Fold:
Amino acid sequence: MLDANPGDLRAAVRAGEHTGPTAGLCPGYTQANLVALPEADAFDFLRFCVANPKPCPVLDVTDPGSAEPAQMAPGADLRTDVPRYRGFRGGELVDEPPDAREVWRDDLVAFLIGCSFTFERALLAEGLPVRHIDQGVNVPMYRTNVDCTPAGRFSGPLVVSMRPMTPAQAIRATQITSRYGPVHGAPVHVGEPSELGIADLSAPDYGDPVEVRDGEVPVFWACGVTPQAVAVASRPSLMISHAPGHMFVTDARDEKMAML
Amino acid sequence: MLDANPGDLRAAVRAGEHTGPTAGLCPGYTQANLVALPEADAFDFLRFCVANPKPCPVLDVTDPGSAEPAQMAPGADLRTDVPRYRGFRGGELVDEPPDAREVWRDDLVAFLIGCSFTFERALLAEGLPVRHIDQGVNVPMYRTNVDCTPAGRFSGPLVVSMRPMTPAQAIRATQITSRYGPVHGAPVHVGEPSELGIADLSAPDYGDPVEVRDGEVPVFWACGVTPQAVAVASRPSLMISHAPGHMFVTDARDEKMAML
Structure:
């Protein structure tokens, strides 16, 4: 499964044979965050993404009523090809099913949003630390006190992911991730967590805590889990997303996400 | 007027004191293409832009019914602050008024789309030739035989702008414009015009022809006039745009458009 091609992995997910996280699967292929909303909310949400490109870089949008991401994975089915889903109703997380066919509706529009897994491979290729991979856990993510730019009915806090590094490593990581504009790009903050309203690095709001070693500073990137915090704040009647870490694996190559 | 700040220029435009092209005005401030459409077409058009980021990089989207680009120029009025407009009805160009209040409707959504004027300043700063500026004419633009990625009701050809350069200059220009992802980014083609379906460089579809000197090749960038060709192909009931070269001048600094 580790070296499966994306189509084979999605088939295994669809068959219920893989329901776990996707970190490290199909190396070299872009993984994506999922957001599906009723068509009535879709224009406001797309405006929200365009106004907040760092947390919400849009990789694909389905036709209303279609679950096929025609640009990023032609033939795939977003109702079945994500290992675990989250259903939000009126902003409340109500379910985490392995299959979304029961809750999907004919009026939904699905959005694929870039994921930091893409640039992590570039960091690892430089020998930079990606602590949550070393520790075998999910990346720590935090709701911040930074408001996204509102658009229509959608507003809410920026969510960030965090990777500890030395200052010199943080500078190099800034250079590397700046190339990857469509997958969150450069960090949004380096250093003091309290400046983002984060009280305790050891208690992330999503994912798992990781060790910050002596001489390291926390480096924060905008995170594609932001729409889930926005759902809680903005209470759309229905939002279906992936469960954090359980991404949709596309047919697109990671290197296609590099701007230059 | 040449060194006016954007707010003063927009006030002069609104008062009917400036109805000409905007090239060279308010140096350092980002100029933008305008597209306004009925709300019923707005989601399809925004999906079209997201699927075609090189010709249609979205800088701002108004709330439905509002003519204020709140992110790029708070307080401005897109019905009056563009020096010359174009009105398309059912895909036909029907008018080029200096003021759009007569044709504007309460259900319109307006989009600001990045413009190559931003990266031209960076090219000039390197001493690279920008021939249409040297010749004092509008940049030559061509409809190509390259189809944009369709989205909903919108489809149509890619429009490109062209600047002649030596091959070495074209390489440097590729590096420089790659930094400016939100304003068309790197070229889409260098060399043979016929590969884009362009039969005669001396007969552009928009703007003016420019001299191509011995030893120079034509260098083509995706162009923000693309939505006007898409309007002709897709025939929305109403589209209001700027007249080519008569841009909306925003409060945003050009350097903010550089990705890194």
